[in-house]
Write a structure and sequence with these properties.
The chain is of the alpha/beta class. The protein contains twelve helices and 17 strands. Helix 9 links the parallel strand 8 and strand 9. It binds pyridoxal-5'-phosphate (PLP). Pyridoxal-5'-phosphate binds next to loops.
């Protein structure tokens, strides 16, 4: 059967340029090799075993995920080194993690002894231990212990029967607010330095620290080069998106994921409406500075308003749209777009080459 063309796809469709995807994967893998750190990509971005397979083939050490359900899905697909990079809490989760531990080398995040303790009992009863990585807040202000509390919390987690301290990790999500490249680089440097300093304090206190794990796409290149960092967990880099371009992480040519949409209405000269609304694009804002809900490739026009099924384009001066015309939209945030769809369409140029199943989507527990 000859490969279908892009034109034959029903819209809206999420399209992934496979050449750009593979180049992004190879580039980050090369960066990690040069920096001498292990790459453990965050699979929350694609939730797709086929893409994770490409990352593994390029040298990824294991995968990061955010949910126990995602870990289960990737273990089913044969991935055997998984880090749930989230403070997992709940006795039910502890039981599922014990079952998973038979199939994969496993670790989970934690930022409190109370939370980590909820996972310990099944491991203790089975005469086993669960690896725990302490989350440290290096400035994002979301989860994580402040560096000055790390020794105390790490010591108490490591003392819980059924748990074993593996190391420390952080995520500098505040890098997405950096309005200049220099600001992002500074956040990246501090991400690495603060986490490495925290690891040194833990070791000085006699605690074991095997892993010192940083990671976000805007900060990865600089943070992974800080001495003392052992692992990096970027996720978004496989696709990139409008926010990464605005942050200066990459150029437009490095964006692998776009949405193919159809113009379904042109009710006024300054307004066109696409069949891609918030159910396709999500409502995530452009970072670091808000600016619509998606950029139309090859045009200056942007999507300025969304409802569930409608993407309302503010038509830029000198541009026009026709009903039935197809456009490609660069989303603000590719990770949430992938999570909204069962399948991604892999293309080479205008040829459809593969259907990528987003099989770990919706695994929220
Ligand atoms: C804990 C953690 N690690 C790594 C990542 C990957 O970051 P990015 O999507 O910027 O690559 C995320 C993203 O949300 C995260 O929350």
């Amino acid at each position: 059967m000859p490969p279908a063309s892009l034109e034959s796809l029903s819209t809206p469709a999420v399209v992934v340029d496979l050449d750009v995807l593979e180049r992004n994967i190879a580039r980050m893998a090369a960066r990690a090799r040069e920096a001498g750190v292990r790459l453990r990509p965050h699979a929350k971005t694609h939730k797709c075993p086929q893409i994770a397979g490409l990352q593994r083939a390029a040298g990824a050490w294991g995968l990061s995920v955010a949910k126990v359900g995602e870990a289960e899905e990737f273990a089913d697909a044969g991935f055997d080194d998984l880090f749930v990079a989230f403070p997992i809490v709940g006795e039910d989760k502890g039981r599922r993690l014990l079952a998973l531990a038979d199939r994969a080398r496993l670790a989970v995040g934690a930022d409190s002894v109370e939370g980590a303790r909820t996972l310990a009992q099944p491991f203790r009863e089975a005469g086993r231990s669960l690896d725990v990585v302490l989350k440290v807040d290096v400035g994002y202000g979301r989860v994580g212990v402040l560096p000055e509390r790390a020794v105390d919390v790490a010591r108490r987690i490591g003392a819980v029967p059924g748990l074993r301290l593996r190391g420390v990790f952080t995520h500098a999500g505040h890098g997405y607010g950096g309005e200049t490249r220099a600001a992002v680089e500074e956040i990246a440097r501090l991400e690495g330095e603060r986490l490495a300093a925290t690891a040194a304090e833990l070791r000085a206190a006699g605690l074991p620290v095997e892993e010192v794990s940083v990671g976000s796409t805007p900060t990865a290149a600089a943070a992974m080069r800080v001495p003392g960092v052992t692992e990096c967990r970027p996720g978004n880099y496989v696709f990139h998106d409008g926010s990464q371009v605005a942050l200066g992480t990459c150029s437009l040519d490095d964006c692998a994921l776009t949405i193919l949409a159809t113009v379904v209405s042109v009710p006024a000269a300054d307004r066109a409406v696409l069949d891609a609304g918030s159910k396709t694009l999500s409502t995530d804002p452009l970072r670091p500075v808000a600016g619509g809900y998606g950029q139309l490739l090859g045009r200056s026009s942007r999507i300025e308003k969304l409802s569930e099924e409608h993407g309302v384009v503010a038509v830029a001066k000198g541009e026009s749209f026709k009903v039935g015309e197809r456009v490609r939209v660069l989303p603000n945030h590719a990770c949430v777009v992938a999570n909204l769809h069962d399948q991604l369409v892999g293309v080479c140029g205008d040829r459809v080459e593969a259907v990528l199943e987003v099989s770990a989507r919706g695994k929220v527990r």
